[in-house]
Design goal:
With 539 residues, this protein is of the alpha/beta class. It is built from twelve helices and 18 strands. A six-stranded parallel β-sheet has the order 1-3-6-9-12-14. A four-stranded parallel β-sheet has the order 2-5-8-11, with no helix packed on it. Residues 138-181 have a biased composition (Pro residues).
Length: 539
């Protein structure tokens, strides 16, 4: 989906094709809903009804986009305002480009180089227009585009205990969605003013996103406003109770098997959506989740397998309402000449399909390098148009971790990204076209200590009395299937504190005496470890 309105024939053709695809998916979802009703499977019927309504709403929004006339030419006053904004945007783009060049992130370097070029081109074009002394000719009227295909009809739904069906969403910057409608900003909007003013102090996306989530879940999506039978009610309640919680917790193999057993088998809708993949034995999770879909919080001995994780949240009404508030905040920022902008739901951070978190072991949690052992994430299908992270972990260590034969396609930066992987394999993974996953989609990073303290361990030193088979033995081994170019475990991380030859047993002894609670306390603990000769700082 184009990110801005355009009359480009190719862009419009892409959108029309997307509408036809959504209409087909809506009809298939409706058929599946009716099949579920025939066998009195109301839970499945709710899922299919919700999915059908999401497809229809997205189809309608794209149709509206196609039928919207192009924006009028900019007035001289709008050109002047935009020229005042552009130097700040160019400066920010240059800053981001320099940052990603420092960490050698090729994808982001290309993205910000294109953004910088686009901004500079716009600045030149508008400067030329501003310098023109002759009056600009009246804009030539653009013919109204032909109506787009109509969304698939929504037949009456005989689902028990009817509830109001939410009207799905629209994210802003990414592969498919269009910007949500711009709400009217008034100076009396205390929420917008408060969030924008606080956000403007440092551009902290987490702050703005958490404030928006709270406003929605305490307002339109509060417990008093959402029916208990709403299939999204569970997802709302989870985030209302604890912002960072996942849709599904898995702490042991029994819970993993229970989740698999209670999810519906893939239907013709999934088969048609992913024709290159054999989904016959896969189970389909709920497609609406606000933060993570699955968090594996455990010491290990777990298999997460044969699941379909589809992130249709980016097409939900909730995401659309989220983006309305984002647009309001950003408009407030724009009106005051500020450069920081809140990202839309499509780019909200801290959303993972599968996040791995080692459980507490002998008083040491993931921030102290606790180890998760013998875990397999295999045979899953993960799909999102948003910035969902695929199979992901930033804290803790992982021994004998195997990520194999999954199908992944996401709009985010991290498809498979693991910090602290000691041993195992990452191989046989493919995209949704059944083609081998590009090497660039996989990355290994050093063990991180202290969470936000950003302390990284580039290598380990083990007591001579420890055997390599001992669970307390830490060592980076070669990871089967990962090329050396994607293994950054022994690379220093910019803007952080890195250590080598770290004796984890000695570190854990320090942590057990007084567990650090702040970045400064973590740095003090590492300083003590270094003084005693059990770690070396890397400059």
């Amino acid at each position: 989906m184009p990110q801005t309105l355009t009359t480009s024939t190719s862009d419009r053709a892409v959108v029309k094709a997307k509408i036809l695809e959504l209409n087909r998916l809506a009809l298939e979802a409706d058929a599946q809903m009716r099949e579920s009703l025939k066998i009195n499977n109301t839970a499945s019927a709710y899922v299919w009804r919700d999915r059908r309504d999401n497809y229809n709403a997205e189809s309608k929004r794209l149709t509206d986009w196609l039928n919207t006339p192009p924006a009028p030419a900019m007035t001289p006053e709008e050109i002047r305002k935009r020229l005042n904004e552009l130097p700040y945007k160019i400066q920010y783009a240059e800053k981001m480009l320099a940052e990603y060049q420092r960490v050698n992130n090729a994808a982001k370097i290309n993205e910000w180089a294109r953004e910088l070029q686009s901004l500079e081109t716009e600045q030149t074009r508008l400067s030329n227009l501003s310098n023109t002394t002759t009056a600009a000719p009246a804009p030539v009227p653009v013919p109204q585009p032909a109506p787009a295909p109509r969304p698939a009809p929504t037949p009456p739904v005989p689902v028990p205990t009817p509830r109001p069906a939410p009207a799905p969403p629209a994210p802003v910057p990414a592969p498919t969605p269009v910007p949500a409608p711009q709400p009217v900003i008034s100076n009396g909007n205390d929420f917008i003013t408060l969030v924008a003013d606080n956000f403007n102090t440092n551009g902290n996306q987490d702050y703005a996103h958490n404030a928006i989530l709270s406003a929605l879940l305490d307002g339109k999506y509060s417990t008093s406003s959402i029916s208990a039978n709403d299939p999204k009610a569970t997802a709302y309640n989870i985030i209302r109770q604890q912002n960072g919680s996942p849709l599904y917790w898995i702490r042991n193999q029994t819970q993993s098997q229970t989740l698999y057993d209670r999810l519906p088998v893939a239907s013709s809708a999934e088969k048609n959506r992913f024709p290159a993949i054999n989904v016959n034995k896969l189970r389909v999770g709920q497609t609406f989740f606000i933060r993570d879909c699955i968090q594996v919080y455990s010491g290990g001995d777990i298999t997460i397998g044969d699941l379909i994780i589809i992130d249709d949240t980016v097409y939900s009404e909730f995401a659309q309402d989220f983006d309305r508030l984002v647009n309001s905040i950003n408009e407030y920022q724009r009106q005051r000449g500020r450069t920081y902008r809140v990202f839309p739901f499509l780019r909200m951070a801290h959303r993972d399909a599968v996040q791995l978190i080692p459980g507490i072991n002998d008083g040491i949690n993931q921030f102290g390098g606790a180890v998760m052992s013998n875990v397999s994430v295999s045979g899953n299908l993960i799909y999102s148009d948003g910035a969902l992270q695929g199979i992901f972990s930033t804290d803790g260590a992982f021994r004998n971790l195997h990520i194999r034969n999954n199908y992944l396609q996401i709009g985010g930066e991290h498809t498979i990204s693991i910090n602290g992987m000691l041993s195992g394999s990452i191989m046989g993974n493919k995209d949704i076209n059944n083609q081998s996953l590009a090497d660039s989609k996989v990355a290994l990073y050093p063990l991180r200590l202290g969470g936000g303290a950003n302390i990284y361990v580039l290598s380990f030193s083990n007591n001579a009395s420890l055997r390599s088979t001992d669970v307390r033995y830490y060592q980076y081994e070669a990871i089967l299937g990962v090329p050396a170019s994607r293994d950054f475990r022994q690379h220093a991380i910019p803007n952080s504190r890195c250590y080598q030859n770290v004796d984890m047993l000695e570190l854990h002894a320090i942590l057990k005496r007084q567990y650090p609670q702040t970045p400064q306390q973590w740095q003090t603990a590492m300083g003590e470890l270094s003084k005693r000769g059990f770690a070396q700082a890397v400059s």
